[in-house]
Design goal:
234 residues; alpha/beta; Rossmann fold; eight-stranded mixed β-sheet; 24% strand; globular
């Protein structure tokens, strides 16, 4: 349940997906916040700092629905803040890959996260995730997407499709430039993100505006998941 007094606003729910069990019965899903704006100050009074969205950790983790044993790639892990939280969620039976593009940043991550033996920090190539095929369940990209080469981002989505399991997801947090109080060049318009993802073979299933910030959270799954043959159950 969401904490009382914290208003969560959905900017757009592209698809509302209801999980269906093997027997055909509906599976319980997490309650979703309302898109109704009851307090305009939530929109007007925004924290323009780069990490304001971190104050909404609980909501973001809820939407990511991380389970023990999951394998997560924190792409552009930075200071390892998200990596550490993911490590707690996946537990010792899971794995969190912390990717950075310079050895200096990788070394810092290893030093900070040495108490988490199931975290693997590694030097990531700039044009692909650099992990084996189907090796992760979730890729998390926080304030990093705009750093990817704009000429090759569509191909990067195709590389992500190789890295993620067939039903895996990609979650992106980015600054929304039209409403940004600062750092407009350190973000990506939602329309651009969705267009590039779709051209790369992905489809958005959730998009949320993170209240009192200038950021949004977008979650994608692969288009081919909608055409896969259902697994047979004997």
């Amino acid at each position: 349940m969401l904490k009382k007094g914290i208003l969560r606003i959905s900017l757009a729910v592209i698809f509302a997906i209801i999980a269906v069990g093997v027997s055909g019965e509906e599976v319980q899903v997490s309650p979703l916040p309302s898109s109704r704006v009851r307090d305009p100050s939530v929109l007007v009074q925004r924290d323009g700092s780069g990490y304001a969205y971190r104050t909404h950790l609980d909501f973001i983790l809820q939407r990511l629905d991380i389970q023990p044993g999951d394998r997560i790639l924190d792409l552009g892990a930075g200071d390892g803040w998200w990596t550490a939280h993911f490590a707690e969620k996946v537990g010792p039976e899971g794995t969190v890959y912390a990717a950075e593009v310079t050895q200096e940043l990788v070394d810092r991550l290893k030093q900070r996260l040495h108490d988490h033996p199931h975290v693997q920090s590694y030097l990531c190539p700039r044009d692909r995730p650099g992990l084996p095929d189907h090796s992760v369940d979730l890729v998390f990209i926080s304030q990093v997407y705009h750093h990817l080469d704009g000429q090759t981002r569509i191909n990067y989505w195709r590389e992500l499709a190789k890295t993620v399991t067939p039903l895996g997801r990609v979650a992106v947090i980015e600054t929304y430039p039209p409403i940004a109080l600062r750092g407009k060049d350190h973000g990506t318009p939602l329309s651009t993100l969705v267009r590039e993802a779709e051209e790369g073979g992905w489809i958005p299933v959730e998009v949320w505006f993170i209240p009192r910030t200038q950021h949004y959270l977008a979650i994608f799954i692969q288009q081919k998941a909608f055409f896969a043959e259902p697994a047979s159950h004997q």
